[in-house]
């Protein structure tokens, strides 16, 4: 587990925001009389927002932008209590003490990512961040390739940490090592399909895994 660069997904991996994302997606869908189950809403967390709309509402392309805007407004208005999972701050600071490079690869928009980086006062913890709105959505590996280029680290010396198939598939596409976390969106059965080095059931286990090789 001795890596030079650790790349984290945000929602469901570092940040306890899945519940509010689901609530906001359902609120937006209801405004336009579109049925949406909890499972369907959870299943798309990790994708870029345009891809979320295309996946959830393929039969009403003319409404997708309106639903997206309703979702974004509701999320911003109601996500003020979202925060890191317990232990995340300690994990990130310990990794920085070990002189690891840290990055974020997220399905959020740049505006959304900047907002939560400010909310957690964590801008200085990460060497580089990439949001889906400025690159390609997961599982396309472009955002990882951009992070590697920006940090000068090769894929074999980096590791991707995420809670969804999109995270692990993205890393698998460029043969980057990866760890799944089971406390986010996708089940262990789904995550194991992408051959992670390990699956952590909580942040404390993830902490132990990432620092075991330091």
From TrEMBL:
Domain of life: Bacteria
Gene Ontology biological process: DNA repair
Keywords tagged on the record: Hydrolase
NCBIfam families in UniProt: HAD-SF-IA-v1
Protein name: HAD family hydrolase
Keyword check for Hydrolase: yes
Taxon lineage: Bacteria, Pseudomonadati, Pseudomonadota, Gammaproteobacteria, Moraxellales
PANTHER family per record: HYDROLASE-RELATED, PHOSPHOGLYCOLATE PHOSPHATASE
Keyword Flavoprotein appears in the UniProt entry: no
GO cellular component entries: cytosol
GO molecular function term, any single one: phosphoglycolate phosphatase activity
């Amino acid at each position: 587990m001795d890596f030079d660069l650790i790349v984290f997904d945000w929602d469901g991996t570092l940040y306890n925001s899945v519940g509010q994302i689901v609530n906001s997606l359902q609120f937006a869908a209801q405004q336009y009389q579109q049925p949406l189950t909890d499972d369907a809403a959870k299943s798309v967390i990790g994708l870029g927002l345009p891809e979320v709309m295309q996946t959830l509402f393929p039969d009403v392309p003319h409404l997708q932008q309106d639903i997206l805007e309703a979702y974004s407004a509701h999320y911003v208005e109601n996500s003020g209590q979202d925060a890191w999972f317990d232990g995340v701050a300690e994990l990130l600071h310990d990794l920085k003490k070990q002189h690891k490079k840290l990055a974020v690869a997220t399905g959020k928009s740049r505006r959304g990512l900047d907002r939560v980086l400010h909310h957690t006062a964590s801008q200085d913890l990460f060497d580089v961040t990439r949001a889906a709105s400025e690159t390609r959505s997961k599982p396309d590996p472009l955002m990882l390739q951009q992070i590697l280029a920006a940090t000068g680290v090769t894929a074999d010396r980096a590791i991707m940490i995420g809670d969804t198939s999109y995270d692990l598939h993205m890393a698998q596409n460029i043969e980057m090592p990866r760890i799944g976390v089971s406390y986010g969106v996708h089940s262990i059965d789904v995550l194991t399909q992408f051959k992670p080095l390990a699956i952590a059931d909580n942040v404390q286990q993830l902490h132990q895994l990432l620092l075991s090789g330091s």
